[in-house]
TrEMBL record:
<dbReference type="InterPro" id="IPR007055">
    <property type="entry name" value="BON_dom"/>
</dbReference>
<dbReference type="InterPro" id="IPR017080">
    <property type="entry name" value="UCP036990_CBS_BON"/>
</dbReference>
<dbReference type="Pfam" id="PF00571">
    <property type="entry name" value="CBS"/>
</dbReference>
<feature type="domain" description="CBS">
    <location>
        <begin position="90"/>
        <end position="146"/>
    </location>
</feature>
<dbReference type="InterPro" id="IPR000644">
    <property type="entry name" value="CBS_dom"/>
</dbReference>
<keyword id="KW-0129">CBS domain</keyword>
<dbReference type="InterPro" id="IPR051257">
    <property type="entry name" value="Diverse_CBS-Domain"/>
</dbReference>
<dbReference type="Pfam" id="PF04972">
    <property type="entry name" value="BON"/>
</dbReference>
<protein>
    <submittedName>
        <fullName>CBS domain-containing protein</fullName>
    </submittedName>
</protein>
<feature type="domain" description="BON">
    <location>
        <begin position="144"/>
        <end position="212"/>
    </location>
</feature>
<feature type="domain" description="CBS">
    <location>
        <begin position="11"/>
        <end position="68"/>
    </location>
</feature>
<dbReference type="InterPro" id="IPR046342">
    <property type="entry name" value="CBS_dom_sf"/>
</dbReference>
Amino acid sequence: MLNRRTIGDVMTEEVITLRADTPFHEVAALLDANDIGAAPVIDDDGAPIGVVSASDVLRHETGLPDALGQDGDDEHAWGKARAQTAGALMSSPVFTARADWTIPRAARELRTRHVKQLPVVDHNGLLTGIVSRSDLMNTFIRADDEIRDEVERDVLGRILGLAEGTVLVEVEDGAVLLRGQVPGPRLVAVVVALCQGVEGVVAVEAHLGTAPA
């Protein structure tokens, strides 16, 4: 198996947090000073109980339930617009992730829940980090040298057991070019599929022949 990075590898561990009784002006100041789009609200034990986002702050500043200034009849949204503390302003219940989740699983969760960040909790439900859409996107933007090294080391060497130099690997802007020979024709498709599974690879072009018996 290829080594897959997990949420624990990409999450932010030093998390800016709020308490339920944090006043609104402190909430706004913390988000602005740290240039973040959201912050989890934690209880006395350190477990996340909600999330306050920049859009929640905008609702409060406009005095309207819609951050764009449109009226609405949602009483909960109006309550956020009048909130004076993080507890009244936050969205709850909070959706969380675990550090051992794979990147695709977290991405699916963000999409399903329509959120931009997920607090990360341990097996006790206590906050250990936070992961955002940008954190996940960065996993697909890897240096070409890193991709080449992983293809050579893990795909060709560790998994397939090919001798060094049997297949030459070039990577440009995430596109992998393979040149060389493999023991049999069926192995070509296997090599391509494994390379496509390497994080950061956007395309694979294979010019591979079959080594003589």
